[in-house]
Amino acid sequence: MSAPDSRIRTSNKFPNRQMFSTRLEWNLRPNRLSELLQAKRASGATLLDLTESNPTRAGFIYPSEQILHAFHDPRALHYEPTPAGLTTARDAVAGYYAARGQQVSPECILLTVSTSEAYSYIFKLLADPGDEVLVPRPSYPLFDYLAALESLRPVPYSLAYDGNWRVDFDALRRAVTPRTRAVVLVNPNNPTGSYIKKQELETLLPICAEHGLAIVSDEVFSDYAFAPDPHRVQSLAGVEEVLTFCLSGLSKIAGLPQMKAGWIVTGGPQHLLAQARERLELIADTYLSVSTPVQHALPQLLSLGEGLRKQIIGRVRENMRFLENSVRGTACHALHAEGGWYAILQVPRTRSEEDWCLALLERENVLVQPGFFYDFDVEAFLVVSLLTQPETFQEGMERLLAELNSNVQFDDF
């Protein structure tokens, strides 16, 4: 008998069959800004990155020994597959809310590795393929991907700006269809830095109750307000009128994105709440993705996070003050923000956002993000990170303003 042919012969009976899921049909080609950035880095250019969002690379002082010691727990050597998360870890999360004056039962907390995973669990819980979720615009561009991966359709509702950001409830009402399953809030929003106000929540709850919609409230930046405001809602934890899911985690509140620990706080009417918790635990039990070591370390990591939050809030406030002072009397305008890690600059529409970003990177070695990354409806806006180290931020802003105020003809791109 001859040896089998090492080549694989196939007969495709379905020549029109697509190999990969249509959920992944995104444009993967790098844009012009990415291409220029890659070329700049390859050339060895020294860049002023005003987009830095990784706190572990932003020059903060971490209590390294204490963080590492949090993982010196013999219990981490034993696998404890608890779908909702270990009781000690959920107690620690409940303590985080208690320190902010909010009573959250550990039974209403479910641990995840991240807010992205939390979104995937909630979308699985609430929606069938083809259903819709309402997402704010402008906002973080991840929603399109998270929804598509669950075979859902993200439908935007507008945030309007008139010196302050607010939910456009007329737009939100128009966006609701029979297939709408939830309204996503980002509180405070990224990148607008706007919190939902108590009056807005009072308007939103009856809309959701009327249409049977859940609320998903992403609250990862809620601790980073620039100033107190009695009219804002810091967290939707404790909402009882409609099914509500509040998301947060170590990535932002403790400056520890590498630890991969987040959570969902469930709330709402008791008859729905019990069913939601039961089904969420079933989903979590299917994946069991949160590691045992980080769960045992969570109480100490949350405690250590207080020091990091103080450093971060000091940094973002300092950079915001510098930005506001710098743009006075220039062709650039800083939109009002209440908190978070980002600032939005409105620049002259003499160039497109992309061309502004390319000019700044090419001429000034300054990296910023265009507003269309965040689904701004109109131009021209630039987004900068307030997490950037102050000396880099200040020099970068000076170069940015010099470029804006110059009369250099822009015909290179």
Give the class-level CATH name of the largest domain.
Answer: Alpha Beta
Q: What is the beta-strand fraction? A: 15-25%
Strand order of the largest sheet: 2-9-8-7-6-3-4-5
What count of structural domains?
Answer: 2
| Average pLDDT for all residues | 94
Instruction: State the end-to-end CA separation.
Output: 66 Å
| CATH topology annotation of the largest domain | Aspartate Aminotransferase, domain 2
Rg, rounded, reads 23 Å
Roughly what percent helix? 25-40%
The CATH level-2 architecture of the largest domain is identified as: 3-Layer(aba) Sandwich
- The run of helices and strands is HEHHEHEHEEHEHEEHEHHEEHEEEH
The number of helical elements comes to: 12
Keywords for this entry:
413 residues; eight-stranded mixed β-sheet; disordered C terminus; Aspartate Aminotransferase, domain 1; single chain; four-stranded antiparallel β-sheet; Aspartate Aminotransferase, domain 2; 38% helix
Structural summary, described in words:
The chain has two domains: 88 residues, Alpha-Beta Complex (Aspartate Aminotransferase, domain 1), CATH 3.90.1150.10; 242 residues, Type I PLP-dependent aspartate aminotransferase-like (Major domain) (Aspartate Aminotransferase, domain 2, 3-Layer(aba) Sandwich), CATH 3.40.640. The chain is 38% helix and 15% strand. The strands form three sheets. Strands 2-9-8-7-6-3-4-5 form an eight-stranded mixed β-sheet, with helices on both faces. It has a four-stranded antiparallel β-sheet with strand order 10-11-14-13, covered by helices on one side. Strands 1-12 form a two-stranded parallel sheet.
